Amino acid sequence: MADRKLDLKRLMFSMASLADLGEEATSSKDLSSKMRAALYVITGMFSVPSAALFLYHPQRHYLELLVDKGQRDKALQGITMPILSEQIKRLRPNDPQTARDLAGHAFYQRNRGLWTKLQIEMFLPLFVKGEFVGAVALGRKLGGAPFRAAEKDVLRIVAHQMAITLHNARLFLDLAEKAAENKKLYTRMQRIYHDTVEAFAAAIDAKDEYTKEHSYRVASYAVAIARELGWKKQDIEGIYIAGLLHDIGKIIVDVKVIKKTETLSAPEICEIRKHPQISYDILSKIKFPWKDIGKFVLHHHERLDGTGYPNCLKEAELSDGVKILALVDAFDAMTSNRPYRDKLPLEKAFQEVMRCKGTQFDSKITNTFFRILHKELNGEIKEPQILPHLQETDMRNIKALASGLAM
Predict the structure, then answer these.
(1) Enclosing domain of residue 349
(2) Taking the mean position of all CA atoms in its chain, how far away is CA 296?
(3) Conformation bin of residue 82: beta by default, left when phi > 0, alpha when psi is -120 to 50
(4) Please, which of 216, 262, 295, 314 could form a disulfide with 306 given CB 3.0 to 4.6 Å?
C-alpha cells in the first residue's frame, strides 16, 4: 500500500513537472533562456545536479552545447561533439541511453573524454519525424540510484517535448537567418541601384560644368522636405531617385544649347522645354520599385497658376512630390552659376522664392523648406540636407534670413 502511494506521488510529481516543462518550452523567451529553464525543470524532476542540452548542426556534423546546469567549467561553453550521419542512424530516437548502451557506438568512443568530463549518465537523442535535432545529457542522480523504468518512460515524453521545441526553434532561426540574408542582399542591391542612378545623374550633369551636382542637390533638398512632411521611407527613396533623374531628358538636348551664354532663341527654348517629356518617356519604360517617379519628373516645371510646362497643370492637379521638385529645382538653379548668369545671393534667392509663393511654388512646401533650414541652422537636425550645399560666402546673413522666413 505504501509503495502504491509513493508511486502515485511520483506520478503526480512527474505530471506536474511535465506541465511546467511544457509551459517553459512554449514560453516567449529566447531559445537559450527557454532551454535553460526547461533544463532546470528536468533536473528537478529526476534529482540530477548536472545536465546539458546540445543543438545539432547538420551542415557541420556536430552537437553544440547550448545550455547546461551544474557545470562549473566555463571552458565547456559552446563545446562540440562530432557526430556523423551513419552514427545518428544507430541512435534510438527519443530513448534514454546510458554509456553502457552506447559502449560499442563510434559516436560514444569518439566523444568519451567529454562524456567523462560532463559526467553523463543518461543520453537522450532528440528526434522529430525522423530528423535529429539535438540531445539532452543528464548526470548521475543524487545518491547514485539508477534511473527506474518509470522514470525512463517519463524521459521519453520529455525527449519528445524537447525535440519539438528545438525543432521549432531551429526552423525559426533558419527563417530568421534567411530573412537577414535577404535583407543584406536587398540592401546591397539597393545600394548598387542607388550608385548606378547617382552615376547616371552625374553623367547628365557632366554635360554642363555649371550644373555639376545639380541633380544630387535637388535630390537632397527634396528628401529633406519629404522627411519633414512625414513621408514613409519608401516614398522618400522615390523622391530621392526622382530628384537624381529629373533632368535625364537633357542627355539628348544639344550641348551647345545647354552651354549657350546668350539669351536662348524661341526654338532653343522650345528644345529645352522638351526635356521633362523626354525624361518621362525614358523613365516610364523602367519598372521602378517606387511609385510616381515618372510623374514627378514630367511635371517638375509646372506652376500652381497653370503657366508652367509641359501640360500647364494647376495647383489641384499637382501632387506634393511635383511641388517639392518644382521648388527645389528652381531654388538650386537660382543659387548656382549658369552660362548666361551668375548665381543669386541667398538673400535674393530667398526673396524670389517668397515672391513666387502661391503662384509658382506651393505655400506648404515653401514654408516647410524654410522651417527645415531654420532647424538645420539651430542644430535641431542631425544630418542636414540643405545647409551643407550652400556656399559659406553666403552664410553671413543666412540665419537671420531663415529665421524671418521660417513658419
Answers:
(1) 208-405
(2) 27
(3) beta
(4) 314
